[in-house]
Write a structure and sequence with these properties.
The chain has helices at residues 15-24, 33-42, 46-57, 63-72, 90-101, 118-123, 164-187, 200-210; strands spanning 4-9, 29-32, 81-84, 106-112, 125-128, 134-136, 156-157, 191-195. The chain is of the alpha/beta class and 211 residues long. The chain has a single domain (4-113, 165-210), classed as 3-Layer(aba) Sandwich (Rossmann fold), CATH 3.40.50.300. Strands 2-3-1-4-8 form a 5-stranded parallel beta sheet, with helices on both faces. Helix 2 (33-42) packs across helix 3. 31% of the residues are buried. Bound molecules: BIS(adenosine)-5'-pentaphosphate. Residues 9, 11-17, 32-34, 37, 54-55, 58-61, 66, 85-86, 88, 92, 121, 124-125, 134-136, 139-140, 161, 170, 199-200, 203 line the site of BIS(adenosine)-5'-pentaphosphate. BIS(adenosine)-5'-pentaphosphate is lined by residues 9, 11-17, 32-34, 37, 54-55, 58-61, 66, 85-86, 88, 92, 121, 124-125, 134-136, 139-140, 161, 170, 199-200, 203.
């Protein structure tokens, strides 16, 4: 039976890029806690307003809220998932096993990258507001500037948390929380590491060979 995939990596390490390629291949559903939180913000609810303040500062949203959103948006009885951006800390890693996976097979993939590369990657990222496709003004330009290759929408935007001062904070939070998560999956024999500085196709081939 196929494993669920858990993508772990610093902001900008390429988790979303690889998740869309793996989903396009068939066999997986993609669930990104960042995307779920951004949908909550788009509703302009009181909760969305609170979430926005936290995300715009680069901090983590509360574990309780994130697991609630995650649980409400997955159905493990039907699909195999790519978990993108969850877990972010050891409590979330344990919660994922205990309350979500409940013994289902899973493999964690760590996107290993020098943090110095990330500010430039993120500052140049543009995302399609309509379909979520990810671009980069340096390494993956859309064919027509400002227009999404996939859905044709003229809606390529920069994420509010991709400003340099917020990126620095997101990277700090990541470096403070990731090691126990990696040790957890390593100790359970469920961790593979990919070189996230390689090109997109090479990384994709490496991950595909593991699933
Ligand atoms: P989230 O949306 O999860 O963002 P993130 O983890 O910071 O990751 P990113 O989406 O920024 O980057 P990515 O690794 O997907 O890279 P991408 O493929 O886009 O979280 C945002 C916020 O939500 C958090 O800060 C927190 O506040 C909150 N949150 C989310 N989950 C939470 C949780 N579980 N608990 C609590 N709070 C939570 O690529 C980046 C750029 O690089 C693109 O331009 C791309 O084209 C380019 N690129 C990708 N791969 C390559 C490559 N191999 N070579 C060159 N360029 C590449």
């Amino acid at each position: 039976m196929k494993s669920h995939l858990i993508l772990i990596g610093a902001p900008g390490s390429g988790k979303g890029t690889q998740a869309s390629k793996l989903v396009a291949d068939g066999g997986f559903r993609h669930v990104s806690t960042g995307d779920l939180l951004r949908s909550e913000i788009a509703k302009k609810s009181d909760l969305g307003f609170e979430v926005k303040k936290v995300m715009d500062s680069g901090q983590l949203v509360s574990d309780e809220l994130v697991i609630r959103l995650l649980q409400a948006n997955i159905d493990l009885s039907k699909y195999n998932y790519i978990f993108d951006g969850y877990p972010r800390n050891i409590v979330q890693a344990q919660t994922l096993d205990r309350e979500v996976l409940k013994g289902s097979s899973s493999l964690a993939v760590y996107f290993d990258i020098n943090p110095n590369k990330l500010v430039e990657r993120l500052a140049n990222r543009r995302t399609c507001k309509n379909c979520g496709s990810i671009y980069n003004l340096v390494t993956k330009k859309p064919k027509i500037m400002g227009v999404c290759d996939e859905c044709g929408a003229s809606d390529l935007v920069q994420r509010p948390d991709d400003k340099e001062e917020v990126i620095t904070n997101r990277l700090k939070v990541f470096s403070e929380t990731v090691n126990p998560v990696l040790s957890y999956y390593q100790s359970h024999g469920r961790l593979v590491t990919v070189d996230a500085e390689a090109n997109v196709e090479e990384i994709y081939t490496k991950i595909s060979s593991k699933v």
